[in-house]
TrEMBL record:
InterPro entries: DUF2891. Pfam families: DUF2891. This is DUF2891 domain-containing protein.
């Protein structure tokens, strides 16, 4: 386990590493059963004529499973991430076979062509996860990963171009807790720029984020969650800003944005999916996982002696404990996507040490 940023795996004691590998194997099995599952399918499709009515597999030969395009993309991200973190695991062969079948030059060129023809398809959530997939491949010193990355590069370039054009023309950020949230996508995309060296997009994210969020004050945290959120609007924004500001500046910004009194006086709501087979209620499982990783992200961006760190880490642990028993639920409402959020948290993907 020689991946520097998978801290929870690489620095775990043997017993804990074994437990994590068992969980990883469960996620792998769920994703492998879903990435080639074409139906049910939920996707936004623009139809100009009957000629545009095609099956998901015909339109998206690489990413047609997992209910929708973005879930298929981050399902592939999960496979790559766990293959990196557990290089000796028994699932290596099955994962590599699956990736070989999906990430071919022909498949990914067709995906790139589709996005060129539909420049707002999966904006911005699906784009962000596509760039995360590229990040994972770029950071993996593995011969097969190099081949897959080469095949992915036309789609990666298309998404980066779309991202830049969209962000340049964006007047107001989306502050909801679902796919359209701006801050969530910008955080994942900014991490990609650190690996890819795409300075133009990095600068644009930095400038637009400061314009959108730098002056935010006294966020009404008590409003959350909003509807069927799977991400926290406030924590997504804060998790983005900790990537862009130096620790002291971030600490000051966070004090203004989420005052300690508001955080500590508000009981952070834990929301159960009372009907876990309801696709909207299943969002709450992702909400707790993403809150946990974002709180850990905030702690990583604060000065090491900041008194809020202990409290925020405790809240992150609380969210994980509340959700951990449900993360391998095999019903499709959860299985097509929740594993990605759990793996992002458990392997400390978004943290920069």
């Amino acid at each position: 386990m020689n991946i520097d940023d998978a801290i929870a795996v690489s620095e775990a004691p043997p017993s804990e590493a074994g437990r994590l590998e068992t969980i990883a194997t469960q996620f792998i099995q769920l994703v492998l059963s879903n990435i080639n599952r074409e139906y049910p399918h939920s996707g936004k499709v623009w139809l100009n004529s009957e000629a545009d009515i095609k099956s998901p597999r015909e339109v998206h030969p690489a990413f047609y499973g997992c209910l929708d395009w973005h879930s298929a993309v981050h399902g592939h991200w999960l496979l790559v991430r766990l293959a990196r973190c557990f290089p000796e695991a028994s699932f290596q062969t099955s994962v590599r076979t699956a990736l070989d079948g999906s990430l071919t030059p022909v498949n990914l060129q067709q995906e790139a062509t589709y996005l060129k023809q539909h420049p707002l398809f999966e904006c911005p959530y699906g784009w962000a996860w596509l760039l995360q997939l590229a990040t994972e491949l770029r950071e993996w010193s593995d011969p097969q990963a190099t081949v897959w990355l080469s095949a992915l590069e036309p789609l990666e370039a298309t998404v980066a171009s779309h991202f830049q054009h969209w962000l340049q023309n964006l007047e107001q950020p989306n502050r909801t807790g679902v796919h359209a949230n701006t801050a969530f996508a910008l955080g994942l995309a900014f991490d990609w720029t650190r690996t890819s060296g795409h300075q133009a997009l990095a600068d644009l994210i930095h400038d637009q984020s400061r314009r959108f969020y730098r002056q935010d004050r006294d966020y009404p945290f008590w409003l959350e969650p909003l509807g069927y959120d799977f991400i926290s609007p406030s924590l997504s924004e804060a998790d983005l800003m900790r990537r862009l500001l130096r620790p002291a500046a971030f600490a000051n910004w966070l004090t203004d944005f989420l005052p300690s009194s508001a955080l500590e006086q508000r009981e952070w709501q834990l929301v159960s999916a009372k009907n876990p087979e309801n696709y909207q209620q299943a969002h709450f499982r992702g909400l707790h996982l993403s809150r946990a990783w974002m709180l850990e992200g905030l702690c990583s961006g604060l000065p090491s002696d900041d008194p809020r760190i202990e409290y925020l880490n405790a809240k992150a642990a609380q969210y994980w404990q509340f959700t951990r028993a449900d993360i391998t639920d095999e019903h499709y409402a959860s299985s097509h996507w929740v594993g990605t959020f759990a793996v992002y948290l458990l392997t400390k993907r978004g943290l920069h040490h």
